[in-house]
LL-diaminopimelate aminotransferase (Rhodoferax lithotrophicus), 405 residues
Amino acid sequence: MNSLLSLLKPYPFERLRQLFTDVTPNPAFKPISLGLGEPRHATPQLIADAMMAAITRTPSGLASYPATAGEPALREAFAQWLTRRYSLQLDPATQMLPVLGSREALFALAQTVVNRPANAADPKPLVVCPNPFYQIYEGAALLSGAEPYYVASDPARNFAPDWASVPAAVWQRTQLLIVCSPGNPTGAVMPLSEWQMLFELSDQFGFVIGSDECYSEIYFRDEPPLSGLQAAAQLGRHDFKNLIALTSLSKRSNVPGMRSGFVSGDAALIKSFLLYRTYHGSAMSPVVQAASIAAWQDEDHVVENRALYRTKFAQVTPLLSQVLNVALPDAGFYLWADVAGDDATFARELYAHYNVTVLPGSFLARTAQGSNPGLGRIRMALVADTAECLEAAQRIVEFVKARKA
C-alpha cells in the first residue's frame, strides 16, 4: 500500500459524524443541516435540456472515448466566459482545459507540479495553503510527497490569510501555493495588492500559484471578486507565468452532480497538466460537455442564483448577529461565526437540542504556528431555501439565548 495514505486525516464530515455518534437530536424539531457546502438551489432547466438533447442526438458521442482536452467548442465557451467576466483574452487551444470539478483538478495540479527531491534525506517540498481550508489542499499535498504549510486567516484582515507572515525559508521550499478567493469558509476576497505580492514572491522563488475560484459568482459587494488571472493581466503579466486558475459550475450553476469546471492560465503548465491528465483518465463525457457549454454561455441563471443568496443572507445574517459575532462575508455561501466558546461543544449541543447541524471551525483548520484559527468558530452553509435557513437561524438564536440564561 502507498505509505502516504497513512498521512491523510479524516474529512470534517467524518469527524462531525463521530462527534454526533451518541447524540439523539430533539425529535420536536425536523432536521436542518447547515453543515455541508452543497448547493441546493434548483438546477437551471437550460442545462438539463442541453444534456438531454446531447443524449438523444445522433450521434450522441457516447460510443467514442472523449478527448482529455475537450471539444474545441467547450474550450471556446470557457474563453468567451473569461472575456465577458474578466475582460481577458486567453487561447482556447493552449491556455485552458476542462476538468471534472475543481476538487479533482486541485488534486491533479499538485501531482503535476510537485517535484520530489532525488535524495530522500533532503527536505520535502512545501505546498502552502490557507488555514482554515478545503481539505483537498492538504490531501493533494501529502499524496504528492510534499508537506503542507498552513497560513492562518486573520480576523483583523477580514479573515484573509496573512501571506506576509510566511518566512523566506518557507517560500524557498515552496513548489505550490494554493489560494482560495473568495475563501472557504471565510468568504474573504483577495485585493490586487496581495496578488502583486504573491506574484513577486512566485517570481523570486519559482513556485506555482493555484487559484481556487469556485465561489467567484456568489458575492454581496458591488464589485465582483477579482480573479487571479484578472489580477495578473492588470499587472501586465499577460503570459500568466506560474499561475493556474480553477473554476467550476457546481456553485455558479447549481450542478455539483455534473462535476464540470475548467482550469486556465500559463500555457506551459497547461501542457504539463494535460500530459498528466491523459494518463490519469479524467476526460469529460461529451454529454456533460454539451451541458457545460450551455451553462457557461448563459448568465441569466447566474444572476438569479446570486440574487437568491443575497436575499437569504440579508435576512439570516442580522438575525444571527443578535447572538453571535458574525457579519456578511465578501462572497461565498458561508457564515463564519464566533461562538465565544468551544466550537465542537456548541455544534454538538445545538444538534442535540434543536436538530440543527453546523460544522465546527476547528474541523476545517489545523494547529500551526501555535494555534488553530478555526477554534471557537462555526461554519454555516446557507444553501437551503430562505425559509429553512431562517428557521435554522431562529433555532440558533433560541439556543444561544438559553445557553446564556
